[in-house]
């Protein structure tokens, strides 16, 4: 909306040039900023170029009627007030106009002061609606900060939040990177909640949790008979997220064939359901996430360079929890409060020894591992204080490691580090693959594939 200190913009629509000129002179002299369109077709073209604060349109026009102009204006901005004018007013047409969403219905000929009074009320209504929308967004932003999703006071973490807040109002594709368990989906939801799409759906999928054929059906949908078991048409998640945000987690796990199709989505903003021949346009903002180094994956030939550049419009990198030690106890307090609310109990308190252990531990599973450890501690602590004994053994045991090796070791490959990390977590979880997958922040099926690839018998 235009600044009230300048002038509220009014799109004036009529098929008679004399009326348009008269209204333009009148409105400009009374502090409005009129833009004229001769006929409904011209009005539709103007509405594609800009969003007026008010629409003032004749009803009866050849070709495109005033009601069609109203519908187009409301489709672009549901809050825009539309005033309809007609020389042939009847109760029926007045009711139709109001039912269609008209702000007011005025009969020609009208007095100038009558029209100006209606326009000023429409401008005030518009201003109030815009202020209300802005207030709701601010309240939502404060609620998100207060309720918790992105918790922390660490300087690097606050920089992440500032970047998320800056990119949220845009339509740019965002790539969120960081180790498993650092809160990539939390940040994605934060971006969505602060965006203009906040009132629409937030869809998400873990790309590493499904085999290729099923993943493509979930992403793009399929048509009946496209494969065995496709007994009806299925809407894909891209289409289901229309108007909202779609979060693709673990995008580095996708196959080259799926990557080609994702590239088409980003280039053309359309999808082709499995088994279909015609593309379907989509209106979805994409946020992707990965715990992999995609540039290294590109070098290995496992990820498409062109897709990476399309995804990496805005990159948000999340620091691991070991680099946010000043947030550990803050996060722990929030998790204990959440657990208390879910159980309907008074919140547990961390004992000094337990807090010391939390601060000393390296947290390879990051925030997710911290949350899981505290959930376990709450269950094992019947009293109000959590002692060190309620924490997992891996958190409380002390390890002494030499700071300097006798001789330098060669740099390990990324796969070597990943394999070693998976074995470390499996050992810490006594071989329980389900718990290990939770700590690693991956789906159990992804863990099984990695174990098979590394030739590991868990």
Quick one: biggest sheet? 5 strands, parallel
Radius of gyration: 29 Å
The top-level CATH class of the largest domain is: Alpha Beta
Overall helicity: 40-55%
Flag low-confidence runs. 1-5
Strand order of the largest sheet: 2-1-3-4-5
What is the third-level CATH name, the topology of the largest domain? Rossmann fold
Number of strands: 16
Q: Give the second-level CATH assignment, the architecture of the largest domain.
A: 3-Layer(aba) Sandwich
Descriptive overview:
- The protein is an alpha/beta fold and 458 residues long.
- 47% of the residues lie in helices and 14% in strands.
- Helix 2 (40-49) runs parallel beside helix 3 (66-76) and helix 10 crosses helix 12.
- The chain folds into four domains: 9-131, Rossmann fold (3-Layer(aba) Sandwich), CATH 3.40.50.2300; 148-319, 3-Layer(aba) Sandwich (Rossmann fold); 321-397, Helicase, Ruva Protein, domain 3 (Orthogonal Bundle); 400-458, Arc Repressor Mutant, subunit A (Orthogonal Bundle), CATH 1.10.10.
- A five-stranded parallel sheet has the order 2-1-3-4-5, sandwiched between helices. The protein has a five-stranded parallel sheet with strand order 7-10-13-6-14.
- The chain starts with 8 loop residues before the first strand and ends in a 5-residue tail after the last helix.
- The protein has 19 helices and 16 strands.
């Amino acid at each position: 909306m235009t600044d009230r200190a300048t002038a509220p913009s009014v799109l004036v629509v009529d098929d008679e040039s004399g009326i348009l000129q008269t209204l333009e002179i009148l409105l400009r002299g009374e502090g409005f900023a009129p833009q004229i369109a001769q006929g409904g077709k011209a009005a539709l073209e103007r509405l594609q170029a800009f969003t007026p604060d008010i629409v003032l349109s004749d009803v009866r026009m050849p070709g495109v009627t005033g009601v069609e102009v109203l519908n187009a204006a409301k489709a672009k901005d549901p809050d825009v007030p539309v005033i309809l004018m007609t020389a042939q007013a009847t109760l029926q047409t007045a009711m139709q106009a109001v039912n269609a969403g008209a702000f007011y219905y005025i009969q020609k000929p009208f007095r100038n002061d009558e029209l100006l009074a209606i326009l000023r009320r429409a401008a005030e209504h518009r201003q109030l609606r815009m202020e209300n929308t802005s207030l709701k967004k601010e309240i939502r932003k404060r609620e998100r900060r207060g309720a918790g999703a992105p918790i922390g006071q660490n300087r690097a973490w606050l920089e992440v939040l500032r970047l998320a807040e800056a990119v949220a109002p845009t339509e740019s594709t965002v790539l969120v990177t960081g180790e498993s368990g650092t809160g990539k989906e939390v940040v994605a939801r934060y971006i969505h909640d602060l965006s203009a799409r906040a009132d629409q759906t937030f869809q998400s999928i873990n790309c590493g949790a499904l085999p290729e054929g099923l993943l493509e059906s979930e992403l793009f949908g399929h048509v009946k008979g496209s494969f065995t078991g496709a007994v009806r048409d299925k809407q894909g998640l891209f289409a289901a997220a229309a108007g909202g945000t779609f979060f693709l987690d673990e995008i580095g796990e996708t196959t080259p064939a799926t990557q080609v199709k994702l590239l088409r989505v980003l280039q053309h903003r359309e999808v082709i359901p499995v088994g279909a021949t015609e593309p379907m346009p989509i209106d979805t903002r994409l946020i992707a996430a990965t715990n992999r180094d995609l540039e290294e994956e590109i070098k290995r030939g496992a990820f498409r360079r062109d897709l990476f550049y399309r995804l990496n419009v805005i990159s948000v990198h999340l620091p691991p929890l070991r680099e946010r030690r000043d947030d550990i106890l803050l996060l722990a307090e929030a998790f204990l409060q959440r657990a208390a609310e879910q159980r309907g109990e008074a919140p547990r308190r961390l004992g000094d020894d337990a807090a010391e252990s939390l601060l000393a531990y390296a947290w390879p599973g990051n925030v997710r591992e911290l949350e899981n450890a505290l959930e376990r501690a709450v269950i094992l602590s019947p009293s109000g204080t959590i002692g060190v004994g309620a924490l997992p053994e891996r958190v409380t045991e002390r390890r002494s490691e030499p700071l300097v090796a006798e001789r330098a070791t060669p740099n390990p490959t990324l796969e070597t580090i990943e394999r070693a990390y998976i074995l470390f977590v499996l050992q810490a979880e006594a071989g329980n693959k389900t718990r290990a997958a939770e700590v690693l922040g991956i789906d159990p099926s992804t863990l099984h594939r990695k174990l098979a690839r590394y030739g590991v018998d868990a």
